[in-house]
Amino acid sequence: MNKRNQTQYPEFYRNDQLELSVVIPLFNEHEVLGLMYEKLKTVITPLRIRYELLFVDDGSHDGTAHALATLSTNDPSVTVVFLARHFGKESALAAGLAQAGGRAVVIMDGDMQDPPEAIPRMLNAWHHGTDVVRMKRQRLIGETPFRHYAGLCLDHILNAIFDLGMPADSIDFMLFSQEAATALGLVAQRRRHMASMFAWAGFRETVLEYQRSPRAAGTHSWSPRRHIPDFSGKADCHTIIETLLRGGMLCGLIMMLTSLLYACFVMAAITGGGFFNSAAPALFFWGGLLFFSGGACKHVLRCFRQARHPQYDICRLERAHAATTMQHA
């Protein structure tokens, strides 16, 4: 630490506790990183609080890592966690939360769709006694009504199937207290949805609406093909297995009733006999049984793998205090 940094960033060198940690997972966001950093500094510095910007590089390969290393060298309020490879957004958030030391923690995306200008409103709500400040998005600027309502319908359907208890229109843009963050760390589930976890824990919650903006640069990677596996991945294994077994039981009941009606038709000579008439119900039954049994076994295997492997590997951690290497959890 040099005297120039102490003069330029006096709020960082005070001895009082960190007031705010902003955790931002990044994957190939080199084009927007500089704008995000400048916007965060512009919004938070006038608040005159001690804060840290905690960026998590989730195995980027577009120059994001080099830009983050430069930021951490020049600005002592920047902490950078470098993951060994691409683990996914939820794992990157978990790695960042494990390093956050602020009394309040904000998590947000690094594509500028979550506006830093909302952070003072979130802090104000937290100062009034709430533990969790969840941001609820309005329609994205420039988004067509079809895409907006199609996304909402898909989220509602998946939420009902996987029983996540996820609040409507919720995203990973929120503030929570240190106590809530500690409680979240006690949850054994590896892949989790933040909003549903806090709703389950029963913390005092405030919901604020905001207008979500388009990406400042680059292209988004959202699509139903990627959204459905990501959504199911946030459900715990037991919930998915229960969903599959419940679906299997329902299909089994429907097939039993269908077979009973079919047998009545055959006995009444409404339809003719033949091999197909006798084999089709059996093939349908065994196909459904194998499908749901295979799905349940697949997620039992996922539980086994999650118990064996760490959620993430940190290859390097750069902050003003020290630089360390290779941590995992």
Automatic annotation (TrEMBL):
Keywords, sorted A to Z: Cell membrane, Glycosyltransferase, Lipopolysaccharide biosynthesis, Membrane, Transferase, Transmembrane, Transmembrane helix
Chain ranges passing through the membrane: 250-276, 282-301
Residue stretches making up the Glycosyltransferase 2-like domain: 21-180
Pfam families assigned to the protein according to its UniProt record, in alphabetical order: Glycos_transf_2
Biological-process GO terms, alphabetical: lipopolysaccharide biosynthetic process
GO molecular function: glycosyltransferase activity
Species for this entry: Pollutimonas harenae
Protein name, UniProt field: Glycosyltransferase
GO cellular component: plasma membrane
